[in-house]
Amino acid sequence: MFPLTVENKHVAQLLLSTGTCPRCIFRFCGVDFHAPYKLPYKELLRELQKFLEAEEDESVSEVPNPPPKRIRLQEPEDQIDGMDSLSQNGEGKLSVTEDGSSSSKNSNLNVCNVCLGILQDFCEKEFIKKVCQKVEASGFEFTNLVLSVSFPPQLSVREHAAWLLVKQEMGKQSLSLGRNDIVQLKEAYKWITHPLFSEELGVPIDGKSLFEVSVVFAHPETVEDCHFLRAICPDCFKPAKNKQSVFTRMAVMKALNKIKEEDFCKQFPCPPNSPKAVCTVLEIECAHGAVFVAGRYNKYSRNLPQTPWIIDGERKLESSVEELISDHLLKVFKAESFNFSSSGREDVDVRTLGNGRPFAIELVNPHRVHFTSQEIKELQQVNHFMTWKLSCFCNSVTELELLIVFLFLILQKINNSSNKIQVRDLQLVTREAIGHMKEGEEEKTKTYSALIWTNKAIQRKDIEFLDDIKDLNIDQKTPLRVLHRRPLAVRTRIIHSMETRYVDEHHFRLYLKTQAGTYIKEFVHGDFGRTKPNIGSLMDVTADILELDVESVDVDWPPALDD
């Protein structure tokens, strides 16, 4: 059933004669159901011409269609603002004759003067197949997708001009058409293309999908259509750091909402001129939302930095904690890059023991996030009992459960690849959940053990008084060793408790529970008086630290997992 009615005939004839395509005519006539837009373009044009050529009494079907929901009656006395200026002749004015026809010479429709070919060439199966070929060649694995399209901002200007044209003609019939009554171009485009993409790729279109296919259109021929708006509404077009042009869609829409109708018509033709060429496709890009993996790591080496140690462009050590963990994840998820973060950091010569240090890795643009039972079996690097147990488990599980098992096997592979670190509690998390790792970081506590050397000979009784000190406030000026990367400041930290164990006349063990962010080495040796008080000043000796271990990081994230 053809969607237009006799009431639409005048507007449809006007738009077609001025160079507007059938699908845009549907939009301006308020056709808000999908089926008519999905018909092949040539069939639509043929049906529209047949509808317009028919006599009015023959154009009404046996079961008449209801008037489009988006068109509403208007009282005759409620005239449209700016109507007088729209009906005048001259540059930028409408040139519509008494019978409703246009003086435009575009009666033989080519490129649509409103959508610039978006709802013509770029809705057909041939174009959809080209996009899908790009998607399939991208190397991403996906089970659904979201389609994102970016249209040239001048389309908004052209739609505004066509709206003013239709608005005037409908006003003559005591009808009104608001800007919001027009079916949005992007909506119509998605109605047409979503089923075609889904059919061609064999997966559903899902607005919540992490896999995005974006298509960016441009139209160089009409790029200056927006420029007059900047002269009239300069406040709407302010340069932005991340934008190549000030003529963004948001800026153009803001200006169109602000400009008076008569001023618009003095600057831009209503109806808009027909272009010579359709839009071009600037780019077709595929991207997958980041995957976030969290866990805890233990570091057993005193010769391993947390992150790559590079000074003046020269690498000092061959590996790091983040590389030993992330290399396996990057390979399995086929991610382009990663971002590593943790709850604090230890020096290269400091071990992290106990329940480990919380960390999170953002895997950027992963090309795969789905794994099969067979792939899990191939990855298994554990004992025969675990291999048998997981093989049985993988016979009937959900995709999420498979991914959890896969992460467990990655954890095993990380732990088997190096004796310098061990990882536990490896799990998928959300971006928001990572915030828990950083929340109230300075209010958290950490426990350390240190081997202390003193220049003077000491007895057991010389260190016992340290056990009785509770909640000691110390002032720490930014240590000299980190001054090149940290701002100069004095930070107050709390030593909550200390416990000592005598070793010999020049050595003792010191166990500390401190506020997170405390520089332990500086608390021991004083950093040339930059940390006050310190162990040396408290004992009236010269003290230094020989070994330091992190015994616990008291952050209850990520959740511990059962073995």
UniProtKB/TrEMBL annotation:
<protein>
    <recommendedName>
        <fullName>tRNA pseudouridine synthase Pus10</fullName>
        <ecNumber>5.4.99.25</ecNumber>
    </recommendedName>
</protein>
<dbReference type="Pfam" id="PF21238">
    <property type="entry name" value="Pus10_C"/>
</dbReference>
<comment type="similarity">
    <text>Belongs to the pseudouridine synthase Pus10 family.</text>
</comment>
<dbReference type="InterPro" id="IPR048742">
    <property type="entry name" value="Pus10_N_euk"/>
</dbReference>
<dbReference type="Pfam" id="PF21237">
    <property type="entry name" value="Pus10_N_euk"/>
</dbReference>
<dbReference type="GO" id="GO:0003723">
    <property type="term" value="F:RNA binding"/>
</dbReference>
<dbReference type="InterPro" id="IPR039894">
    <property type="entry name" value="Pus10-like"/>
</dbReference>
<keyword id="KW-0862">Zinc</keyword>
<feature type="domain" description="Pus10-like C-terminal">
    <location>
        <begin position="292"/>
        <end position="381"/>
    </location>
</feature>
<keyword id="KW-0175">Coiled coil</keyword>
<keyword id="KW-0479">Metal-binding</keyword>
<dbReference type="GO" id="GO:0031119">
    <property type="term" value="P:tRNA pseudouridine synthesis"/>
</dbReference>
<comment type="function">
    <text>Protein with different functions depending on its subcellular location: involved in miRNA processing in the nucleus and acts as a tRNA pseudouridylate synthase in the cytoplasm. In the cytoplasm, acts as a pseudouridylate synthase by catalyzing synthesis of pseudouridine(54) and pseudouridine(55) from uracil-54 and uracil-55, respectively, in the psi GC loop of a subset of tRNAs. tRNA pseudouridylate synthase activity is enhanced by the presence of 1-methyladenosine at position 53-61 of tRNAs. Does not show tRNA pseudouridylate synthase activity in the nucleus.</text>
</comment>
<keyword id="KW-0539">Nucleus</keyword>
<feature type="domain" description="Pus10-like C-terminal">
    <location>
        <begin position="412"/>
        <end position="554"/>
    </location>
</feature>
<keyword id="KW-0963">Cytoplasm</keyword>
<feature type="domain" description="Pus10 N-terminal eukaryotes">
    <location>
        <begin position="112"/>
        <end position="286"/>
    </location>
</feature>
<dbReference type="GO" id="GO:0046872">
    <property type="term" value="F:metal ion binding"/>
</dbReference>
<dbReference type="GO" id="GO:0005634">
    <property type="term" value="C:nucleus"/>
</dbReference>
<feature type="region of interest" description="Disordered">
    <location>
        <begin position="56"/>
        <end position="106"/>
    </location>
</feature>
<keyword id="KW-0819">tRNA processing</keyword>
<dbReference type="GO" id="GO:0005739">
    <property type="term" value="C:mitochondrion"/>
</dbReference>
<dbReference type="InterPro" id="IPR048741">
    <property type="entry name" value="Pus10-like_C"/>
</dbReference>
<comment type="subunit">
    <text>Interacts with components of the microprocessor complex DROSHA and DGCR8.</text>
</comment>
<keyword id="KW-0413">Isomerase</keyword>
<keyword id="KW-0496">Mitochondrion</keyword>
<dbReference type="GO" id="GO:0160148">
    <property type="term" value="F:tRNA pseudouridine(55) synthase activity"/>
</dbReference>
<dbReference type="InterPro" id="IPR020103">
    <property type="entry name" value="PsdUridine_synth_cat_dom_sf"/>
</dbReference>
